[in-house]
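Archive transcription. Copying these from loose printouts into the bound notebook so they stop getting lost. Printout 1 of 2:
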Amino acid sequence: MGKEYEATAKRSGDVTYEKLSKRALYCMYLAGVTGGVVLLAIIGAVNVFWIFPEDITAGKWISLGLAAVLLIEVLVSPYFRYHRYRYSINEECIDIIEGYLFVKRSIVPIERIHKLQTAKGPFDQIFKVAKVIVTTGGGDVTLSFVEEEKAEQIAESLRRRINEIVKDQRAEERAEDGRK
């Protein structure tokens, strides 16, 4: 086990969870700031075209409150999301823990995977992170904000593991057919 892995891993029981790199935190902040600016522009447009001309005092206070909550969300959410996000991949499953106010845990058995995909959005490309999208019969699970190189390694190792499972299943089927 390499030093980098040990530095980013956290043990929980017998499962070793990996943390995201600092690049992921910066990507989260940039995405949050961008979304915040768009929402502030919408609030500003509503104020300029409706609330200020109509002189709606309650609307001004509501806009100020929304802007304050939005600012706090943009500053606080990425920090907590980054520190909460963990993932683990072993021979049997992919386990992802994520969330800010509400924590979500996704456990996907590797034998149920139908499709693997890596993807990078504009902010991901800036910070050299990627997503590994895992599709099962029950839906998609996304491992987000993983360093590009690591995302490719994860996708490749999962692909190899899936191929091994398929080969084993086919060998078992042939053995059963031979016994009949």
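Printout 2 of 2:
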Amino acid sequence: MKKLFSTLMVITCLALAIPAQAQIKFGVKGGLNVSKLHLSEETFKSDNRTGFFIGPTAEFTLPLLGLGIDASAMYNQFGVDSEEGTSTKKSIEIPINLRWTVGFSSLIGAYVAVGPQFGFNVGDRWFNNVCEFKKNTTSFNVGAGLKLLGHLQVGANYNFALKDNGKIHSGDPDDLTTIGFKQNTWQVSVAYLF
């Protein structure tokens, strides 16, 4: 009984010590995104479009396990081209990723991350009275990167839409056709954590 009690005490102390060692860091993240719209009609040019994103970020890590969560609130924009002209889609994107980090030394580490991303349109919802962007979107991130010098992070991820990002309305007003489209994005980011 004494051994069981001692073992339970050690396990309890270790379980309480892990959260005490947890690290929370805040910083700024920004980068380049390359988006492609997936359409079933030729109303828009679905070629790759570049844009940028920037905003605050936070990271919570359990050092012993290398597991953690990162979250950001990013201002995001990219261009959209059609036969009638060019427009810019603007949104606030909130990615929340589960992250696993492996440290090779105190100066360098690598991580992989997965998680959902929630987007909120802050620009015009309509483009040339043909395309209607949704007010909010849901997508999923898969990414990897490097941690350098304890503060700098360089990463790349692929973000794919879980549902339509908007609708294209085409045809005569009497015979209107509505087609949904999805937006998938490659992102390259740099973050500095304090």
